[in-house]
Design a protein that fits this description.
Layout lengths: L2 H37 L4 H16 L2 H16 L7 H27 L3 H9 L4 H31 L11 H12 L3 H27 L5
Helix pairs in contact: 1-4, 1-7, 1-8, 2-4, 3-4, 4-6, 5-6, 6-8, 7-8
Length: 216
């Protein structure tokens, strides 16, 4: 089987990979900020609850979390699962998992902003909300770009975990084609797609980091 023929067969799966990737980032980053703020809360029950949640999400396999999210409506609530639920389960599972990682990264970035800047903002009459969005948040973004880049690159590869709930993304399609043709070439083609995708992601994130260099 030729290279272009293999590409044509797995290209549909690449669209699903892109879908998981972009929507996971769209949901997990804002959720990660909420996780970070809850993790830093002075309200102890909320702080402890978030510590436990983040510990579980970071300490258990993503594949297991996807399976739990997918089957929970049936085993907990007795709701019959539909085929369309796979899409939502994948997005929920990926988004919550990555929100936990982003939350810890964002928390470290927020806490890295010198306390003196908070005090200066208070003297100038800034509210806590104004201080966060006008002073803390921009500096936090600059500090967290490198570790966020690492997580985004990992996400590109982790999209293949969607096979755990039979959601056919690119790697699943490649495995199916490889099994049908008794040929491992589709797996290498999928690997090439992942590699090119990660090069693009790294380039984009590098551009963002340069744009934010004015904070230095």
């Amino acid at each position: 089987m030729g290279f272009m023929s293999i590409v044509q067969q797995i290209i549909g799966g690449f669209g699903t990979t892109l879908f998981i990737f972009f929507f996971t980032l769209l949901f997990s980053m804002p959720l990660g900020i909420l996780f970070a703020l809850a993790r830093m809360s002075k309200f102890k029950p909320l702080n402890l609850f978030m510590q436990v949640c983040i510990s579980i999400l970071r300490g258990t396999p993503l594949m297991l979390q996807l399976i739990v999210v997918f089957f929970m409506p049936y085993y907990v609530f007795g709701i019959k699962l539909s085929t369309g639920w796979r899409v939502y389960a994948a997005l929920i599972g990926f988004s919550i998992n990555y929100a936990a990682y982003f939350g810890e990264i964002f928390r470290a970035g927020i806490q890295a902003v010198p306390v003196g800047q908070h005090e200066a903002a208070e003297v100038l009459g800034f509210t806590k909300t104004q201080t966060f969005f006008k002073i803390v948040f921009p500096q936090m973004v600059k500090r967290v770009v490198p570790p966020v880049t690492n997580e985004v690159i990992t996400l590109v590869k982790d999209t293949s975990m969607a096979f755990a709930i039979a959601y056919a993304e690119m790697f699943t399609m490649a495995k199916q084609v490889a099994a049908q043709q008794s040929n491992i070439m589709p797996l290498f083609v999928a690997g090439l797609f992942y590699y090119i995708f990660n090069i693009i992601v790294a380039w984009v994130m590098g551009r963002i980091e340069k744009k934010l260099s004015y904070f230095e």
